[in-house]
Amino acid sequence: MLSFEKAQEIINREIESLVINREPVELYKPVKYILSIGGKRIRPALVLMACNLFSDTITHAIKPALAIEIFHNFTLLHDDIMDNSVLRRNRPTVHEKWNQNVAILSGDVMSILSYRFIGDCSAEILPDILDLFTTTALEVCEGQQYDMNYESRNDITGDDYIKMITLKTSVLIAASLKLGAMIGGASHTDSDFMYEFGKNLGIAFQIRDDLLDVYGNTEKFGKKIGTDIIANKKTYLILKALEEADDESGKILRKLISTKNIDPEEKITTITGILNRLGIREIAELESKEYYNKALRAFDLVTVNSKQKKSLKDFVKQLMEREK
Amino acid sequence: MLSFEKAQEIINREIESLVINREPVELYKPVKYILSIGGKRIRPALVLMACNLFSDTITHAIKPALAIEIFHNFTLLHDDIMDNSVLRRNRPTVHEKWNQNVAILSGDVMSILSYRFIGDCSAEILPDILDLFTTTALEVCEGQQYDMNYESRNDITGDDYIKMITLKTSVLIAASLKLGAMIGGASHTDSDFMYEFGKNLGIAFQIRDDLLDVYGNTEKFGKKIGTDIIANKKTYLILKALEEADDESGKILRKLISTKNIDPEEKITTITGILNRLGIREIAELESKEYYNKALRAFDLVTVNSKQKKSLKDFVKQLMEREK
Prior knowledge:
By secondary structure, chain A is an all-alpha fold.
């Protein structure tokens, strides 16, 4: 079976050799740029691995996998404008390197290009694939809108957060797995289980990301911690803490996450202290684990033998156990 | 046969009753807003009329027609951000009424929504329809990029301009007619003639628009003239004048179209004077007429009897002869 590393290699090779034979260069250079500056290619690799679960040949899954990766990068490009981010993967964002208009229009063209690659599916499954892709694309935009709405609201709960990240990030992972399965010839039931697998995985991964930002192993990896805290992000941990806190800690926490006029180190220490006292790490770990187990239960129901499932299972385990 | 007015009425009714049953409202309110503030619905009406040329029932063409209108409005929404426009159809633009992030994201969602409506085509023609729609959508973005490139360049010719407007506006009119034809069951050859018809029409209309901005009948309609001149737009007339001008007039013209520090009335009078001396009105009228005739020749080749072609022919004639 196709390992993640092998799938990733195929995707990277395809992206490198991707010739978008169109003009003007001013429009397509930023597209090439954002696609070339990396990322782990998790979503397109999942398309290929999911396809390989049901079919020996994965050739037909390559273009749809690229569609998913191009769409994902389109959302990053436009999110970066909306969030005013200057860096993406340690490189200047498109609107920083060029300008905002270029970033808007190149993003638009990427969103359309992703449909060009989706259109490459065989005619019999095209209506279903198109429907899945479009529904997912709408949901990702809706998730981004909820994320923006939440910034200015003070009444968001952990459940609201789960709903938001489900739309903003999980459904694209779910769609990647379902798309691959459909192209590989999976039954409707199996395709739906693959979707459930991906949706719950995505939530588990995001909560884990939130955890790692506070509790990541910095000694081992040298990665900065507390960047979400400094950016006043309402992560799962913060929202759960607000739910669990008494009046006193709640007040302090609310104040801290609405100011930038405080020493970053002090802010990280104080907030981490509150999280620790409230046992938020344990709550979040449990929650992440529960979604992970739910994901695995859905995957277990897919009617493919365990041996064939091994590489996908190993890969998601590795993602769950990462320490940075 | 379906008249333009009837087709327009159907589209307006469909748009009014369009329930996009999705959340959050913050994302879909601007979509509803831009779709509701009007516009002549020329493109979707053309889809219906083209379909009706080949088929008595136009029901299957309604959703694809809406796709074209939603896509068109998406491009207006994002163009307004890029051009910093505050008004659209005498109403505040989306980024003015809400904010820029809302305008970016609502535009994104409209572009994706247009694919939802395209996906409604019958499975047999879906691959071809999807291909046509995506190619057209890419071209429209490319046209907008050329338009932005041209703003800062001083070496643009009339031919460059034709290339730009072909992409930015004509191909969507062409695609509307071809799409309608395909849904109505037209042959490949007829569908291609419909495309040629629309492409040349679009160019003819744009040159006519440029003419009307300078030579429109203000007394009759009270519409302001010279808005393109005040905005320093490099229209077909200006570019042709730059080609035809001697050194002296060329220098004056070049200076005038690169400044905003001049009394608007004086600017309009001086530039119109130069255009008159160079006979630009006649050149542009001839050019527009030539594209119009080319369009009609393509339409003549469509294997449908003349009687059935009448309402479409009447409508395009009316568009060509409008005086505002």
